[in-house]
Amino acid sequence: MLDFLSPDAVIANLRATSKKQALQELARHAAELTGQHERAIFDVLLERERLGTTGVGRGIAIPHGKLSTLDRVHGMFARLEKPIDFDAVDDQPVDLIFLLLAPESAGADHLKALARVSRLLRDDGLCEKLRGCESPDAIMALFTAQEAQNAA
User: Fold this and answer.
1) pLDDT tens string 6-29
2) Over 80: is that where the pLDDT of 56 sits?
3) Considering 29, 37, 64, 110, which one is annotated as catalytic?
4) What is the percentage of the chain residues whose pLDDT exceeds 70?
5) What is the 3-state secondary structure (H, E, C) of the chain?
6) Terminus of the chain with fewer CB atoms < 10 Å: N or C?
7) Is-catalytic flag, 74?
């Protein structure tokens, strides 16, 4: 199961017109979920983007970062209302964003979470279904079903 993604961490129609605005909105929402400072989250995400884009292609971005004050891995998923330029590796606009935040000490857990999200979002069928979802519950149900299918 995606134990690091909860229903309240899913946004079905995120409004953003730029990569920076999307990261700001995600940081704001993640701050509410984690109790961390919005600015600290935003700074960690921006720092990671400076190393290289987290726009992995096919309309998907997986921004991620580590914060020393977190106690566990947190995930957040957003479907954008309209695709935006995210400097993706394939130059395609992004409309599906999966944010991961991990404790500084997470090490392998952070990498395992990234690998799981990456594997899930490599499924074109799942991504098409996610793009058609109008509610957080429907998105959560898709992830749950997909994880169960992958575990079988």
Assistant:
1) 999 999 999 999 999 999 999 999
2) yes
3) 64
4) 98
5) CCCCCCHHHEEEEECCCCHHHHHHHHHHHHHHHHCCCHHHHHHHHHHHHHHCCCEEECCEECCEEEECCCCCCEEEEEEEEEEECCCCCCCCCEEEEEEEEEEHHHCHHHHHHHHHHHHHHCCHHHHHHHHHCCCHHHHHHHHHHHHHHHHC
6) C
7) no
